[in-house]
Design brief:
The protein is mainly alpha-helical. It is 55% helix and 3% strand. The protein has a domain of 168 residues: Serine Threonine Protein Phosphatase 5, Tetratricopeptide repeat (Alpha Horseshoe), CATH 1.25.40. A hairpin with a 7-residue loop joins β3 and β4. It is found in: Cytoplasm; Nucleus.
Length: 690
């Protein structure tokens, strides 16, 4: 409530994230003595029943089991009456691998391994996908660039890298694939069947597939460059992409969304919104590209509202963003309700949780901590390794405890009559009667000792901070660094990781002071100040929290030492780019700034102004805290001098109630009763004197 936060929601650029073919991936399904050609117009149920009859007559034939799963994956409904295709398909294929292929190299039955990799891909088990594909690619039989299966294996590998957000590996895989394809002889008619591989899997790639291959790879390149914030390179790749799309560029779903993503990252939010809205209108996009995306698990009616909501969030409109995030969630709900679902639709639930995460962040900034806490808590199962998620939960607890500290320093109607009266029956001992509504300080809140972990309490927030700090373990590889924060892109710069670490420690120090755990507050504050190159606002708050925690823990001398130079702090900057990651330039080729000065026509507005919001107010807080510490230690003259010097150097600032009461206290303790009464009359003219 009293500290700045890094702002981030998860954008989902649309691109073909999966193979063009579903499990099986062969255009043919093999029967006993005949080939069954499978197409969209075929009666899939008829072939499915035929294969089941064959399996009944020969229950140990793994080919029939495999082809049943292939037919089911091509089915319009995606499943048979049991409606549990994904777990069963994986179970069947694993049984085949463990029993029928025991001790056999993977390339002796590549179809089985490839289909299992596709199923794992749809279930988001990307590490397993990479493992299976690496075993297939290790064999020399799949080095022929004319082999359809070899091409599909490499494309699925690129898909897995992109989906797991390993963009560096994805770019390297794309370069390897282009080199692999360049070795293909255009007029080659030689046989390409390796070993026991079925001819149906090694046929030459048809012309349509070959013509779309460059476009697909170019989309991957563009997405990887944008995701790694290589803006100059991304701009060039985007131009090449639109050149390949030609006249269909403004009706292609993938191209339009990547263009919107580019404008979003450059800060041209209104342009990004226009591209997104154009994609969401069926009449503006080609039916072919729409069908491709919907057949690969990308739901346009949900992704478009999610991406538009990110734009509104960027512009400081959390309510509008929350509305659109909710719309995306409902779109996934409607699609998931249409059971049974095909294999590729298993990703809908994962995407829905990503939208739920975004919705929770938007609600937090829209000052609805209860709903935000409920949404974010539901994401723990999926994104529990993300330290930022635990920070958001802690922030919900803070906002539930105290929405803002600005109220303490404002002259509200209740505080205007802070002095009820001054009784002067005995001149040497006047008695001041203050209003009960003067102070709403709730420091050192004592909550239920049972700690209900379901509710957004400060004790639960403290546990969230501890979890977030435990997860702040970035992976370092030489000069590179990476911290996974799903569903967002990984943090790959020291600055972004340090900013997140500072936010966590700052929240932790505030919570520790609020619940009375002063030793922990001292530790959190010292750790915060020990971080390199943190924004000025965190340095300011770190010293404030440290001095307060030391005072409350009894170390007055050290507290005074820390507070001595607090009022000299003038840097309150805390705007850290929400687009984490290194950039290769400060300005792109057309002269437009990328961040933070991007989008002069779409200026980013602060989502929630924190208090103190300017340098004079921050200095006033620092002076007040220093004077309070001095007064507590008995150095009344020194405390009065600090206040007096600051007042002589400051004009045009209305003294807040807390500041005024400290000045009155010092006057009374030093015997200046008349000055205290005069000060009270000036700021509380309705007070009665008896």
């Amino acid at each position: 409530a009293c500290y700045p936060r890094d702002h981030s929601v998860h954008w989902r650029p649309i691109i073909i994230y999966k193979m063009e073919d579903r499990p099986g991936c062969s255009p043919e399904v093999r029967g006993r003595d005949e080939n069954i050609q499978l197409s969209e117009s075929d009666d899939v149920g008829k072939y499915l029943n035929m294969l089941k009859d064959m399996l009944n007559t020969n229950p140990n034939n793994e080919v029939f089991k495999l082809n049943i799963r292939i037919v089911e994956s091509h089915s319009a409904s995606g499943s048979t009456e049991d409606s549990s295709i994904t777990p069963e398909a994986i179970s069947d294929l694993m049984d085949l691998m463990n029993e029928d292929t025991e001790g056999v190299e993977p390339y002796s039955n590549p179809v089985l391994y490839y289909n299992l990799a596709v199923l794992f891909f749809h279930c988001s088990h990307y590490a397993k996908v990479e493992y299976l594909l690496s075993k297939l690619m290790s064999d020399s039989a799949f080095t022929d660039p004319a082999s359809a299966l070899a091409i599909k294996i490499r494309l699925l590998r690129i898909d897995a890298y992109v989906k797991s957000k390993e963009f560096g590996k994805a770019i390297s895989a794309i370069e390897e694939f282009e080199l692999f394809r360049s070795q293909m002889e255009p007029e080659s008619n030689k046989s390409t069947s390796p070993g026991n591989v079925s001819p149906s899997f090694v046929n030459k790639v048809d012309e349509e597939f070959d013509s779309n291959l460059k476009t697909r790879l170019q989309m991957y390149k563009t997405l990887c460059c944008l995701s790694t914030r290589s803006f100059k390179l991304a701009k060039r790749e985007c131009k090449l992409l639109f050149g390949l799309l030609g006249t269909t560029s403004h009706s292609h779903v993938g191209g339009m969304n990547l263009k919107a993503y580019q404008e979003y990252l450059r800060g041209n939010i209104n342009k990004a919104i226009n591209f997104i809205r154009a994609v969401n209108v069926p009449a503006n996009v080609s039916k072919k590209s729409t069908k491709v995306f919907e057949s690969t698990g990308e739901l346009i009616t949900a992704i478009a509202p999610n991406n538009e909501a990110c734009c509104h969030f960027y512009l400081g409109r959390p309510l509008g963003a929350a509305f659109l995030f909710k719309k995306a969630i409902l779109a996934f709900d409607a699609k998931i309700a249409d059971k049974p679902l095909p294999v590729y639709a298993t990703k809908y639930k994962k995407y829905q949780v990503e939208c739920l995460y975004n919705f929770g962040v938007a609600c937090l900034h829209a000052k609805d901590p209860d709903r935000a806490f409920h949404c974010l808590k539901g994401c723990i199962r999926h994104f529990g390794t993300n330290p930022r998620l635990w920070l958001r939960l802690a922030e919900c607890c803070i906002h539930k405890h105290k929405a803002t500290n600005e109220f303490d320093m404002q002259w509200t109607e209740e505080k205007k009559n802070l002095l009820l009266g001054i009784k002067c029956a005995q001149q040497d001992s006047p008695k001041l009667l203050f209003s009960e509504k003067f102070s709403n300080s709730d420091r050192n809140v004592q909550e239920n000792s049972e700690r209900n972990n379901v509710l957004p309490t400060l004790h639960y927030g403290s546990d969230c901070i501890a979890t977030a700090l435990a997860l702040m373990k970035p992976i370092r590889n030489g000069s590179s660094v990476c911290l996974q924060v799903p569903p967002s892109n990984p943090l790959t710069s020291e600055g972004a990781i340090t900013a997140l670490h500072a936010s966590i420690l700052c929240a932790g120090a505030y919570i520790a002071i609020s619940i009375g755990n002063f030793p922990m507050a001292v530790k959190r504050s010292r750790d915060l100040l020990g971080l390199p190159n943190i924004p000025g606002s965190y340095q300011y708050l770190g010293k404030q929290y440290l001095s307060q925690a030391l005072l409350l823990s009894g170390d007055v001398v050290e507290s005074i030492k820390i507070a001595e130079n607090e009022e000299e702090i003038i840097d309150l900057g805390y705007c850290v780019s929400p687009f984490e990651g290194p950039t290769d330039d400060k300005r792109d080729e057309c002269g437009e700034a990328t961040w933070p000065n991007a989008g002069s026509h779409d200026a980013r507005k602060p989502l929630q102004v924190w208090f103190p919001r300017d340098e004079p107010t921050a200095k006033m807080f620092a002076v007040y805290n220093r004077a309070s510490i001095l007064a507590t230690s008995g150095k009344l003259d020194k405390a009065d001098e600090v206040l007096r010097i600051w007042l002589t150097q400051t004009t045009g600032i209305l003294l807040p109630p807390e500041f005024l009461m400290l000045a009155v206290y010092l006057h009374i303790q030093r015997g200046n009763i008349s000055k205290a009464v005069s000060l009270l009359k000036e700021h509380s003219p309705t007070a009665s004197i008896t």
